[in-house]
Design brief:
This protein has a single domain (7-211), classed as Aminopeptidase. The protein contains nine helices and seven strands, in the order αββαβααββααββααα. The chain has helices spanning 7-12, 47-55, 73-77, 87-92, 120-132, 134-137, 172-178, 185-188, 193-211; strands at 21-26, 34-41, 61-67, 99-104, 112-116, 140-143, 166-170. Helix 5 packs antiparallel against helix 9 (193-211). The N and C termini lie far apart (44 Å).
Length: 212
Amino acid sequence: MADPRNYQEVLDRGYVREKDFCVAFNDRNIVGCLLAAPHGGGIEPGTSEILHALTDLGGWAWYEFAGYLRNRNKACLHITSTQYDEPTLLSLLPRTNFLLTLHGASNTQDNIVYVGGAWEDGRATLCAHINATTAAHGITAVDAPHPLRGIEPTNLTNRGRSGQGIQLEFTRGARNLLFPPDCSREARGRRRKQVNALAQTLHKALQQIVRG
């Protein structure tokens, strides 16, 4: 089954909100920044947990679309970032300056996060902070390769008011490191110190970026 082309196609396939997937958000302090995990839950495992570790530190607006299916979450519920049109997120986009989106890449087992998005200065700041604290969380940040660059104007990462955002693509290896051994649902229920260390790093980087 091909990925759904849009949110309506998810519904047309018979999937039910609050049963097969959920949409949740908090719009406090949304003007400066919105954090988003558009492929959370079982779609790109680990991204919801990273999001909430970061938002637990306080002060960030956030959005999450999480898959709850027993299997095939990605095949059934993954709306690509350039076609993402879930109505709740669409209502939030005009209210925020920029987005930081959290994704899961599946093309390597290295402990890497690919940093993309159209905001060049924001990407550089995130990379610098992550790499300065690699010893604490074990993940290295690198510039995203072409397929994961996320620089298209239609990419949800770049659809805040500034027209540019930051996209983090965590490889499967990185997510397995944060939620060992396999980023399973059970493993994701146990937050390790590496997750908290990564969240602290992202939190400090975002504070610097938002302050300008």
